[in-house]
Amino acid sequence: MLTLNNIEVVYDGVILVLRGVSVSVQEGTITTVLGANGAGKTTTLKAISGVLRSERGEVTKGSIEYDGRRIDGMRAFEVTKIGIAQVFEGRRVFEHLTTEENLIAGGHIQPDNAKIRRGIDLVYSYFPRLRERRQQQSGYLSGGEQQMLAIGRALMSSPKVVLLDEPSLGLAPMLVEEIFGIVGRLVKQEKLSVLLVEQNATMALAVADHGYVMENGRIVLEGPADKLRDNSDIKEFYLGLNEGGARKSYRDTKHYKRRKRWLS
Amino acid sequence: MELDFTLLLIGNGVLIGLMYSLIALGFVVVYKATDAINFAQGEFVMLAALMSAAVTVLMELPFWVGVLVSLLGMISFSFGLERVVLRPLLGRPIVAVIMATIGLAAILRGLGPLFFGAETRSITLPVGDEPIILGPFMLQPVQVTGAAVALLFLGGFTWFFLKSRMGVAMRAVADNQQVAMAMGINVERYFALAWAMAGIVSALGGVVWGAMLGVDVHVSLVGLKVFPVVILGGLDSIIGAVVGGLIVGIVENLAAGYLDPLVGGGTKDFAPYVLMIIALMIRPYGIFGKRKIERV
User: Fold this and answer.
1) Do A105 and B183 touch (CB under 8 A)?
2) Does residue A261 belong to any structural domain of this protein?
3) What does the alpha-carbon distance between residue B290 and residue B32 come to, in Å, rounded to a whole number?
4) How many folded domains does chain A comprise?
5) Quick check: helix, strand or coil at residue A180?
6) Beta strands B132-134; A2-11: pairing state
7) Which of B168, B293, B295 sits opposite A101 (nearest CB)?
């Protein structure tokens, strides 16, 4: 459905951020991209959604295809129109707008008001807490509510693919679970496809169907999520377990002994 | 007698103040949507007045044609300006935009007389010039018309921003351009729209202001009133522009009525600025300005 073929992204004409990334998202599934800070996960999402250009970044090699047509080089608002919505890292709600106005802005591409109304009702049915906060200025919502609003706002454009950037950032574990649960339901009931970028590997691999691991702007590992969960490198470096599967104590870490072996 | 005099000053201040509000609105809308500070707002008004005077005086066409020409002229002028000058500056430091508009102001002040002639012309509104006397108030029909137009448009713009989908989208653009882009909002189109709105209010302001003072380069001086208005009210608030305009209008009239006779004149022009500096010290974001939201 959505495919990135060997793309390279350059910022400011000189800084090479992605070096040959290939990712594919199948219809009706959750695909996750894991990796540490600065690995290039967010850049990957921005390359798809087209907002890269506003940061003076550019896809210089490779191609991005969606539904059989090339979308690299398209402008951000055009990408949204053909069915790809992005939920930004750190929520980024329109702080000075109310909850409901955020949703209305999210549904900007909808041609008629009835569709907006239906969209808002759909969002409220998945996130009832937003209904209670509908007239509140969104800058004052709690972190969890803002994340719900950010996801709901992305749904307003009736997307087929949602790019979800670190929804767990800065949220309490229980809230993270609640939000991931809702995302899972959305995928099933609304037939969405999700490309999920996460640092919380445990959570991401629990909900995802397929996963990629990124380092230094490259994909170093990919596979079905359950295979990745069993991979010893993933366990060691992303899930914090030792080979026996027990939770590891940081007292026993001997990082110099084990090296990542992605490429061997 | 004393009270009547005060009321008279206040009444005129309100009428003039609403005009300031209307002109400041052009500044506010542009700042709200694009973050650009337009130092050429006064020159916009001047240009509109020159256009309208050229049509009505030089070509001897009816008043309404003049209004129409200056409306269309100002809309296309500000559209073009956004496209040619301001869009390439997008993403540059805000100082670049400020300098560009200051330069533009100087250019307009120079080119205006070059194209339209330097002599003072007059625009006559199709209203009488007999002052309307209402109790202690003595109101000039021109000013009343100006105030009415101002109120109409201030109301219209308020409705637009609060209730219409385009208005909400425009506020979203103001809040976060990158995210707005990802919501399918064509950000550049909204920038153009904001400048066009500035063009519309400048055209209306230009016609009325020109009718009040006569049309020449000095019409652009009204731009100097815009700054105290928007600083008092808040750079990005429409209601702020209304309140700021009223305060500035009233204060300068009171200053003219009470302080000028004592010191021999001139206080009218700087009294609003004294107020502005005080306001900056007490409420830097203005009476209604957006406060930066900090969650704890």
Assistant:
1) yes
2) no
3) 10
4) 1
5) helix
6) unpaired
7) B168
Of B178, B183, B293, Cβ closest to residue A108 = B183
Per-residue pLDDT tens digits for B74-87: 999 999 999 999 88
Residue carrying structure tokens 């206080």: B267
Which candidate in B35, B87, B175, B292 is best for mutational testing of the A interface (most A CBs within 10 A)?
B175
Question: What does B160-191 look like in DSSP terms, one character per residue?
Answer: HHHHSHHHHHHHHHHH-HHHHHHTT--HHHHH
Domain assignment present for residue A150? The answer is yes
Tokens of A41: 């996960």
B30 close to B226: Cβ distance less than 8 angstroms: no
Task: Give the C-alpha distances (Å, rounded to integers) separating B239 from B33, B42, B246.
Answer: 16, 20, 11
Q: Is the minimum CB–CB distance between B296 and chain A shorter than 8 Å? A: no
**Rounded to an integer, what distance in angstroms lies between the CA atom of residue B172 and that of residue B279?**
28
pLDDT per position as a tens digit, A145-178: 999 999 999 999 999 999 999 999 989 999 999 9
Where does residue B220 fall: left (phi above 0), alpha (psi -120 to 50 degrees), or beta otherwise? alpha
| Residue B290: closest CA among B32, B24, B20, B30 | B32
Q: Range of A77's domain?
A: 2-230
Residue A248 is assigned to a structural domain of this protein? no
**pLDDT given at position B4:** 86
Question: Beta partners for A58?
Answer: A10
Is A92 within 8 Å of B295 when comparing Cβ atoms? no
- Which residues on adjacent β-strands are paired with residue A198? A34
Do the bridges between strand B132-134 and strand A69-70 make them parallel or antiparallel, or are there none, so unpaired? Answer: unpaired
**A85 with B182: Cβ contact below 8 A:** yes
B180 in Cβ contact with B169 (< 8 Å)? yes
Q: In terms of C-beta distances under 8 Å and separation of at least 24 residues, what long-range contacts does B124-131 make, across chains too?
A: B124/B56, B124/B63, B124/B211, B125/B63, B125/B207, B125/B208, B125/B211, B126/B63
Distance from CA of B177 to the nearest CA of A (A): 9
Is A244 contained in some domain? no
Mutation site, A54, A84, A140, interface B, largest B CB count within 10 A: A54
Residue A60, domain CATH:
3.40.50.300
User: Is A157 in Cβ contact with B184 (below 8 Å)?
Assistant: yes
Q: How far is CA B1 from CA B4, B5, B8, in A?
A: 5, 6, 10
Q: What angle do CA B86, B92, B94 make, to 5 degrees?
A: 80
Residues of chain B with pLDDT under 50: none
> What is the Cα–Cα distance from B214 to A212, expressed in whole angstroms?
71
Record the pTM. 0.86
What is the value of ipTM here, to two decimals? 0.86
b/e sequence B92-103, b meaning 16+ C-beta within 10 Å? eeeeebeebbee
Q: How far apart are CA B143 and CA B15, in angstroms?
A: 6
**Cα(B259)–Cα(B264) distance, integer angstroms:** 8
